[in-house]
Structures are given as structure tokens and as C-alpha cells.
Specification:
This protein is about 85% helix and about 0% strand. The relative contact order is 0.07. By secondary structure, it is mainly alpha-helical. It has 15 helices and no strands. The chain is elongated. Helix 1 packs antiparallel against helix 2 (about 30-45) and helix 8 (about 145-160) packs antiparallel against helix 9.
């Protein structure tokens, strides 16, 4: 059946809303992106348009740490994708839930769901998304050999798909994983690649996430002035964008930076604020990590006070 002019116009309007929402999402304007995606959902005239809009709405809810809403939308999108036989969209819906599970610290459940999504992914782009999420999960578990494998495969898939935005994310995550395992030089090298690509794409949110990672690497190297300059830029953006998770990550790095100076009082303030923001964002992994940093700092302060003359 040939599409009617009315349906063609409706589809064009839906695509415009989806594209506009994506630009806003990558710029960190999650509320405005949600408005665009909700508009696309309201204008959808086909099951595939509805599914795509719901997947994106679920992703925004995840970014706003509205995890119950995110999972509800993702599962609705999955159910519709199953009915429509849309495997790629089903895999994308599964990937949203994988991200939520990782933020909640449920890494084994996320890994299992990742294998399900990978089996359903039909295109290099969606395969790349799944692999980079699985790489992130492996890195969070401390399994860096597996995370490197997943990240390398995701980068290859994104290059095959010519999906530069996904490639930027994969490079950014690979840089963070390298830093977490102590390979600072590799982290900075990969981070430079991610930053250059993110600037070319004008992908502000992933750019500043990568800048934040670079700052953490500079802290490890003891280059505190360079780290502070990068963190100030990133923290300002994430504060304006009202992203508590990213704010908490920046403040955690600032705490580490001030421990090195040494300025224990400022470090404690940074860690305390980071912990509170992480709890508000329901990022249990981050909250636990910052809490441990606070406990270590307090123990060092107590030991120093006892040894003082």
C-alpha cells in the first residue's frame, strides 16, 4: 500500500521531533529532549515510530534517574517491538534497561540481559551499542580484560556502521576503563580521540564526560592545575543541565585533587556533596565508592591527630 500524503507528512513530523530531541539530549537538555520525544510519540502513525519514541523517552528517564519510569517505558517498547518483529528496536529497548541495572549496581543481571540484546541486534550500530554497554559493565566489575574485548568490538561495530556518535561514547568509556585499571597513558590517548570526535560532532554531553575523565587522569599524574581547569568546565555544564550523577563524579575527582594538595577540609566537603548527589541520583555504585573515600579520609585525619605532638 502506498503511503498517503497525510501519513508521509506525519512521518516527517515524527522524524523532525526525534532528530530535534536527539540534538537536545546530546547537548544535555534532557527536559527539552523529553518534550520533543513526547511530541514524536503523540504524532506517531506507525508501530515503529511509537517504539522508537518510547525507547528514547525511556533513555531520558534513565538520564534523569527516574528508573521506574525508564524501565516501564523500555519494557513497553520491548513488548511492541516483539509484536512488530523489530529486533533492532527490541535490542535498543533492552539496552536502556541494561543501563538502569548498571546504575543500580546489578551487574550480573545487566550482563545476562546484554547477551539477550546482543543476540537480537541485527545492525552494526545496535550491536555496537550493546557491546559498549557490556564493556562498561565489565569495567565496573573490575574485569578489564573482558571490558577491553567488548570495547574493541563495539568500536569496530560503530566504525562499520559509520556511527560516529556511538564511536565517541565507546572511546570515552574505554578511556575511563583504562584509567580505572591504572593505565593512565592509554586513558589520556583514547580520551584525546574521544574529545576530538565529540567536538567535531558538537556532542556536548559526551564531550564533557570525556573531559571529566581526562581531569581524573591528570589528578593521578599530579597535574592538578590542568585537572581543575577541566573539572570547572565540566561541573558548570552538568550543574546547568541538572545532572546530579555527573556532578557527583566531578566532585569526587575534586575531592581526590584536594587530598593531594593536601586540603583535607575541602576534600571532605567535595566527597560529602558528591555522596549526597549520588544518593539523590540513586547511583548506588558511585555513592558507595565516595562513602569509602570519606571513610578513608576520616581514618587518615584521625591517625594524623593521634600522632600529632
Amino acid at each position: 500500500m502506498e503511503p498517503t500524503p497525510e501519513r508521509t507528512r506525519a512521518s516527517s513530523a515524527v522524524r523532525a521531533q526525534l532528530d530535534n530531541g536527539f540534538r537536545l539530549e546530546q547537548g544535555g537538555s534532557l527536559e527539552r529532549a523529553l518534550d520533543s520525544y513526547t511530541g514524536a510519540l503523540a504524532a506517531a502513525t506507525t508501530p515503529l515510530e511509537e517504539i522508537e519514541a518510547r525507547v528514547r523517552i525511556a533513555r531520558i528517564h534513565r538520564g534523569r534517574t527516574e528508573f521506574d519510569k525508564s524501565i516501564d517505558e523500555a519494557r513497553t517498547a520491548l513488548r511492541l517491538a516483539d509484536a512488530a518483529g523489530a529486533d533492532d528496536l527490541a535490542a535498543e529497548a533492552l539496552n536502556v534497561e541494561i543501563g538502569v541495572l548498571q546504575l543500580l549496581g546489578s551487574f550480573e543481571a545487566a550482563e545476562a540481559l546484554g547477551h539477550t540484546a546482543l543476540a537480537r541486534a541485527k545492525t552494526p550500530r545496535v550491536r555496537g551499542i550493546t557491546l559498549q554497554n557490556m564493556g562498561r559493565g565489565a569495567a565496573e566489575r573490575g574485569d578489564f580484560k573482558t571490558s577491553d574485548m567488548y570495547f574493541d568490538q563495539s568500536i569496530e561495530a560503530f566504525r562499520e556502521a559509520r556511527y560516529d556518535f556511538g564511536l565517541t561514547f565507546a572511546l570515552s568509556n574505554a578511556a575511563r576503563a583504562a584509567l580505572d585499571r591504572g593505565d593512565v597513558s592509554r586513558s589520556i590517548d583514547i580520551g584525546h580521540q574521544a574529545i576530538a570526535l565529540a567536538r567535531r560532532l558538537n556532542a556536548l554531553d559526551v564531550l564533557l564526560t570525556t573531559v571529566q575523565n581526562q581531569a581524573a587522569a591528570f589528578v593521578v599524574l599530579g597535574n592538578l592545575d590542568a585537572a581543575e581547569s577541566l573539572l570547572t568546565e565540566a561541573l558548570g555544564h552538568f550543574t546547568t543541565a541538572r545532572n546530579p550523577q555527573r556532578q557527583a563524579e566531578c566532585l569526587e575527582i575534586m575531592g581526590q585533587m584536594n587530598e593531594q594538595r593536601p586540603d583535607a577540609e575541602t576534600a571532605e566537603r567535595c566527597y560529602t556533596r558528591a555522596r549526597d548527589l549520588a544518593l539523590a541520583a540513586t547511583d548506588r555504585v558511585l555513592a558507595d565508592r565516595v562513602t569509602k573515600r570519606l571513610e578513608t579520609l576520616h581514618a587518615a585525619q584521625t591517625a594524623a591527630a593521634r600522632s600529632a605532638p
